[in-house]
Amino acid sequence: MSSVSSMATVILVTGGSRSGKSDYARLRGEALEGARAFVATCPVVDEETAERIRRHQQERSPDVWDTIEEPVKLKEVILGADNYSVVLVDCLTLWINNLLHEAYMSGDAVSEDYVVSRANELLEACSTHHGTVIFVTNEVGWGIVPENALARQYRDLVGRCNRVLSAAAHEVVLVAAGIPLVLKKREP
Amino acid sequence: MSSVSSMATVILVTGGSRSGKSDYARLRGEALEGARAFVATCPVVDEETAERIRRHQQERSPDVWDTIEEPVKLKEVILGADNYSVVLVDCLTLWINNLLHEAYMSGDAVSEDYVVSRANELLEACSTHHGTVIFVTNEVGWGIVPENALARQYRDLVGRCNRVLSAAAHEVVLVAAGIPLVLKKREP
Amino acid sequence: MSSVSSMATVILVTGGSRSGKSDYARLRGEALEGARAFVATCPVVDEETAERIRRHQQERSPDVWDTIEEPVKLKEVILGADNYSVVLVDCLTLWINNLLHEAYMSGDAVSEDYVVSRANELLEACSTHHGTVIFVTNEVGWGIVPENALARQYRDLVGRCNRVLSAAAHEVVLVAAGIPLVLKKREP
After folding, report:
1. CA–CA distance from A37 to each of A40, A82, B13, B94 (Å)?
2. Residue A25: C-alpha distances to residues A97, A119, B145, B165, B172 (Å)
3. CA gyration radius for chain A?
4. Are strands A66-69 and A86-90 parallel, antiparallel or unpaired?
5. CA dihedral B113, B117, B122, B125 (to 10 degrees)
6. ipTM above 0.85, yes or no
7. Which residue would you say has higher pLDDT here, C48 or A109?
């Protein structure tokens, strides 16, 4: 990995569902100068998802954000985002869901090591970027152990991915009830 | 809404199930002077709930708290609570549950906008109160996405309601393992 | 209970699943001098569990930690751990699970009072220990109410146990995305 000085400022925003993570991340991005890319990892699979996407899109002015839809190839998007000062990826949990889906379709299993290596690829892509990359993720492991084996695996993978990003991030923010709690902050 | 100076001090206490939220909120109320009202939003629907209510009641001295049971009409209770210096509403999550139940019984759907407008009504009622209004709520969105569509909607609505209250509250406290973590505090 | 001065330093480490709690607790223990015991409360009930145990074991050098496997009798283990300066119990949630299982097998019910008394026994055992006892536990109540009655009881019992330990602990640390957040700290 490149030295820290050449790396994009990486911000990880995490929190429960509907905690205000996405709004917070968007406002952080809008407080920065320059062109901004919103990377949506969410494939439209049902009407509920479509409605959620519509609502989020209405909150983002097209004058302020360009939207890039990419469910899986996040590394490539970040590597190709030289024109943008701010890249906001929303969100990593859906990305992991999409990795699982892709693997399932091709008959492959997804290991923790695989997710770790994919997460590290994202950080390597960030290390070549000149601006700020903001990742939104979810806390998914604060309930009881799910009965469903796939759900258990999913929360394991999300927890692992969050820790990889968090360890390298310049800033980690936990959002609860709309209020940011800075867990970690170091100078870029 | 009235100016902040005429508004009751609003405290939002949130946290996971059995985190000590209710105990913390009760102690905050008991640390204040004057008459105190405990507003129970919990309709007794089963023996498990009844037992939980009994246990909570035993912890509240009737010399210290008047209990008002009201599953739905919280705005009206707050508007009529002029005789009390402290109003403790426990809890908003059950209130939302009751709103959903009421709507279901009358064949209506409950939108996020509806919950936001009901939450804003609570804040408007608080703006006419002279004392302190403490709301207890729950964090419900830190697990995996529920398979049940109603559960998904419920956690969306709770998350939204919490953010409306939190944005206006003077103080927001997250309780974990019995320990309060102040997320936000401004002078009344 | 003995006076605080004769009590082991008690550290409670909590957080969601895969948040980095165990790693953090292990590093805390390794930062202390003297012999170290790792108390595994996890009975090997299935391959998924076995795999998780193997992974955790690989992270613990046998030169640095002695492993003691004990699913239920934690008080006895702590009382007999005079040879160790550091006792790390991982984790209380599995211990409560094992208490529930034991009671179920003998046809008994497990009440909150029972768990509170068992948790207090752990603290009493700590009060006779000369070193540091680190307990790892889980946050399990931040999701929606489980449909399963046993799961509801389990999260109630875990919440209650966490609060008993937390109230007495010298230090309580919440770990999220691998980052420790100190909720409470007092001098030993």
Report:
1. 9, 10, 36, 40
2. 21, 19, 21, 20, 20
3. 16
4. unpaired
5. 170
6. yes
7. A109
pTM over 0.90: yes
**Read out DSSP for chain B?**
---GGGSPEEEEEEESTTSSHHHHHHHHHHTS-S-EEEEE-----SHHHHHHHHHHHHHS-TTT-EEEE-SS-HHHHHHT-TT-SEEEEE-HHHHHHHHHHHHHHTT----HHHHHHHHHHHHHHHHT-SSEEEEE-----SSPPPSSHHHHHHHHHHHHHHHHHHHH-SEEEEEETTEEEEEEE---
Residue A144 to residue C144, Cβ atoms within 8 A: no
Is the Cβ–Cβ distance between A140 and B141 less than 8 Å?
A: no
- Residue C58's H or E segment, with its range, is helix C47-59
Do the Cβ atoms of C127 and C6 come closer than 8 Å?
A: yes
The verdict on A144 touching B (C-beta cutoff 8 Å) is yes
E-strand stretches of C62-169: 66-69, 86-90, 132-136
- CB–CB of B16 and A176 under 8 A? no
Q: For residue C149, which residues of chain B lie inside 8 Å, CB to CB?
A: 48
Rounded Cα distance between A185 and B92, Å, is: 33
User: Mind listing the pLDDT tens digit for each residue in A31-41?
Assistant: 999 999 999 99
What is the share, in percent, of chain C residues with pLDDT greater than 90?
A: 77
Residue of B nearest to C160 (CA): B18
Distance from CA of A17 to the nearest CA of C (A): 10
Q: Is B30 exposed, middle or buried (0-12, 13-18, 19+ CB in 10 A)?
A: middle
The answer to whether A144 contacts C142, with C-beta atoms less than 8 Å apart, is no
| Structure token pair of residue A152 | 């258990």
Tokens of C45: 């009930």
Q: Would the CB atoms of C142 and A16 count as touching at under 8 Å?
A: yes
pLDDT at A28 over 90: yes
Looking at beta carbons, which residues of chain C come within 8 Å of B48? Answer: 149, 152
C113, two tokens: 């009072």
